[in-house]
Amino acid sequence: MADISLLAQAIDRGDMEKAVALTRAAAASGANPKDIIAKGLQAGMASVGEKFSSGEYFLPDMLMAARALKAALEVLKPMLEKTGIPTIGRVVIGTVEGDMHDIGKNVVATFLSGNGFEVFDLGLNVPVQKFVDEVKDKKPDILGMSALLTTTMPVFSKVIKALEQGGLRSSVKVIVGGAPVTQDYANYIGADGYAHDGGRAVPECRKLLGK
User: Fold this and answer.
1) pLDDT above 90: percentage of residues in the chain
2) What backbone torsions phi and psi does residue 115 show, to the nearest 5 degrees?
3) Domain ends where: 83, 118, 134?
């Protein structure tokens, strides 16, 4: 049986060739694809998330790990089409209206995808009604909103209010983040969660869903 822990290490180091080779070996040895994902790919990304949050890893490290993860998932795709990809929960994410910054949001989306969440990324400059429509349509467990400008942070409140008016607020957990955003501000606007960066977003979303 192939050693899946070595796969986690390859993802952590962003070694795409090794990650692909180890994924193929694990699949060929009869390992359950869900185990390969959980104990190999997701474990590796979890390690990257911790190192990113602590300042040991930086954006290029995270992007290399994400690339390795994506390539490994491609190897498993035929097997997963038969068994289905295990997901922790669904997340709709986007940068709020008036804000054209998406690097932080992209990092969060990548980490969530790599850790077993099904992510619907709405991009940047997302209107309030678009968030509401997507919550209604996709029925996510979590709505993630990002803002990098203090002038666009009040849009968080507008979205939460619009969800309440649409009778949708109780159906979704709201998590917010971005450079100027704080835990106190998240509490003030009535968000369910707050994450300073992509690495912290994963455990926070898991906590929101009790997983």
Assistant:
1) 63
2) -110, 25
3) 83
